[in-house]
Every structure is written in C-alpha cells, then in structure tokens.
Fold this protein.
Amino acid sequence: MQGKNFIITGGSSGLGLELAKHYASEANNIGLIARNLEKLQAVVEQLKVLSPDSNIFYCSTDVSVQEDAEAAVSQLAAALGGIDTLINSAGILREGRFENTPIETFREVMDINLFGTINIIQAALPYLKTSQGSIVNIASMAAHTGVFGYTTYTASKHALAGFTDSLRYEMKPQGVSVQIICPPEFDSPMVDELNKDRTPENRAHTLMIPKEPIEVIVKDTVKAIESGRYHTVTGFRAKVMAVAIRLLPGLGRSMADKAIKKAAAD
Ligand SMILES: NC(=O)c1ccc[n+]([C@@H]2O[C@H](COP(=O)([O-])OP(=O)(O)OC[C@H]3O[C@@H](n4cnc5c(N)ncnc54)[C@H](OP(=O)(O)O)[C@@H]3O)[C@@H](O)[C@H]2O)c1
C-alpha cells in the first residue's frame, strides 16, 4: 500500500504503534488516536523521522466517549483527506478473579474494548463508504475461548467478535470490508503491566497458547489486511490451537483445568 489514509486507534503503543510504523514506512498517511498526549507526540516525532514521506496526524481522545470519538475521527479525516483503512487497536486488559472484580471494572473494559470500537466505527463509516475502505478490529484469542482471570476481557472480546461478524454482513453489500484479527499473547506495555500482578492460574492457562513475537503479529496482520480475509489468527501455533479449540472443545477445557490446578498447587 502507498498513499492511503489510515486511522489507527491505540496507535501510540504496542501493536497499534508497530502497525503505524509499518504503514508509515510505505509512505501512507496516518492518523493516530490514544488518550495520553505526551506519548502520542513522542510517537509522532519518531514516525516522522522514520518515514519522512508520510503525513502523520494525531488526536488525544478517549474512544469510549462518543462525542470525543466523533470529533477525533472527523478532525483526522479532514487532515488526511478521507479514510481508507480504520484499524481499531485501542484496548485495555484487566486480570483477576471474578469474585474480586467490581462491576465498574466490567463497565470500564466494555466501554473501551467494545463501545470505544463501536464509537469510532460509527464516526468513520461515512468516510469508509465513500472510499470503499476497510475496518480492521483487533480482537484476541480471548475472543475464541474463556480464560482464567479474564472474565472482563473475554466478555469484551467475545462481544467485539459478535459485533464484528454481524457488521461484516451489513457492510459487504455496501463495499466496506470488515476484518477481525485474533492474536495470542505478545509482549507489549499491556502485557508488561499484566505481568506485575498476574494470577499464576492466568499465566499457566494463557500460555498454553505460546506467546508470539510482536513482529509475527504485525506480519500476519499486514498480510490479512492486504488479502482482505475476514478472520485471522496470528502466528502458526495460535492458528493450530484455534482449530483445536473449535474441533475439540472438551479436550481443550480438560487440558486447561489441569494446567490451572497445577498452577494453583505450585
Ligand atoms: N498484548 C497482547 O498480548 C494482546 C493479545 C491479543 C490481543 N491484544 C489486543 O491488541 C490491542 C493492542 O494491545 P497492545 O498489547 O498493543 O496494548 P498497549 O501497548 O497497552 O496499547 C494500547 C493502546 O490503546 C490506547 N488506549 C487504551 N485505552 C484507550 C481509550 N480509552 N481511548 C483511546 N485509546 C486508548 C493506549 O493509549 P492510552 O493509554 O494513551 O490511551 C495505547 O495506545 C488491544 O486491543 C488488545 O486487547 C493484545
């Protein structure tokens, strides 16, 4: 791709940032959305040095606030001159036992991971219909299966997957492509934070699907965006596990139960 206009939410960190670097390096124009202004400004300076041929814009916005999401998208669309591809990577992770999780945490995670994505898509849709562009939602392997400690996160990612599936059927006749990407765990500031205080059961359960380097996640995501394929699990081992979870759910559950029991006993 070259000369295309991307909006990337969560573009100041982790996967969103790596995708921004990739598309900027191909001389595309990028609009970044995240909340922390200083982080965004630092990232924009970095991208401008790496990719002097691309135009980089940014907007410090909380995607979970509908009016702010609308304002950010229209500001960035005006600066870019339209939107060809919208990548929704903004997300948060909270880990802990359900019994210790206040309802506010469920609302916070749903507000950002699900409603934040919906807010941004609603605002971007008129531009994407004009460009016959693409929506790419970053979900997770946690959209495929339950995980110890992730009652909030899996609820949000399963909901995101259901929403994305339905949206695809509505957008296809209108010429807007909709895609979902499901990565396994990869190193990022989100996972650095998780690792500070993670239950051993969550670590044991999650890592039954081995962590992949972020480069693998970026490579497979870029390939998926180019191909227009609807559903992509990134990384070979995660792909195999996703098939196993679908075909042999009982076996998957009993292996997970054993890993969780062992982690609790250790
Ligand atoms: N890392 C993993 O193992 C993993 C695995 C599977 C799926 N994923 C998914 O991949 C996506 C990216 O994860 P990551 O690991 O790259 O995370 P990350 O490094 O923590 O980056 C998250 C990004 O989202 C932004 N963000 C968070 N809340 C926001 C809000 N309310 N409004 C606007 N921006 C917001 C953050 O910036 P601010 O905090 O400044 O707003 C940051 O730019 C997420 O959707 C995550 O669920 C991650």
Remarks:
- The chain has one domain: 5-198+209-239.
- Residues 5-198+209-239 form a domain with the Rossmann fold fold (CATH 3.40.50.720).
